[in-house]
Amino acid sequence: MAARKSASKNKNKNKNKKVRVALVQMACIDKPDQNVKKALERIGKAAKAGAQIVCLQELFRSRYFCQSEDDAQFELAESIPGPTSKALAKAAAQHKIALVGSIFERRAQGLYHNTAVIFNERGEMAGKYRKMHIPDDPRYYEKFFFTPGDAEPGFFATATAAAKIGTLICWDQWYPEAARLTALAGAQILFYPTAIGWHKEDVKDIRIAQADAWELIQRSHALSNGCFVCAVNRVGTEDGLTFWGGSFVADPFGRIIAKASADKEEILYAECDLDSIDSTRRHWPFLRDRRVDAYGGILKRYGQS
Fold this sequence. Notes:
Elements: H1 2-13, E1 18-25, H2 32-48, E2 53-56, H3 83-95, E3 98-108, E4 111-119, E5 125-130, E6 136-137, E7 140-141, E8 158-159, E9 164-167, H4 176-184, E10 189-193, E11 197-199, H5 204-225, E12 228-232, E13 235-238, E14 241-244, E15 248-250, E16 256-259, E17 266-273, H6 275-283, H7 286-289
Helix pairs in contact: 2-3, 4-5
């Protein structure tokens, strides 16, 4: 009887699993070492505030260099492991946290990726995700710099002590297929390191519509997959872009539970109750009702041909 009571007590003790996440929203300058120093300081601050998982914004080491097709910017790239990834690994081990950092990766001569590296609480590289969807728009000339990820599987989840997480990057956030496959791999929390902003010529109505759409599509990923979504953006004006910040965390019901400002540097904290994933999926059983036998057409570019 005593053994049963002890087991029951332990079961109840572990019943609720809440994870504290932190998103580091920064402005960047043209001095990479100072950007890294700032990020490391804020990682430490987040850990002291109880964060178990910390995520940095896309390409946090530099200003957003993809606004022009300037081949001199390739000098910003690093190998993995390299100086920045080693510094992040050390920080993860020092603070005993899981950490997501976005790096301009030099994979080989002439071959570069936009890569998110996931470190576990021991400072080990637990996952490496190379951005799959690469934009080519005015001031987002990423196809000039980045090769799409080619690892198998392309979308995956990484186990950490706090939660099983999936990492996607910026333009990936507009694709429900990416969120779905990452959630199907077991991700409880999706992280989206981001660098998105307004063109200086955009009028107010367009700016509002763009930011609303960015938030809405990611909230829909949270709801349709019954998981948490964390999007972390940068702030500040860099050449022709003003980054709109607005980093946020959405729960499995698609509700925003924490949101940062549009123009200030800050660390955004949120508590993710992992038990709510199961509860939400019971009442909104989208994964149960998926017609996996009827989705062959998704492999077509458009229509039936």
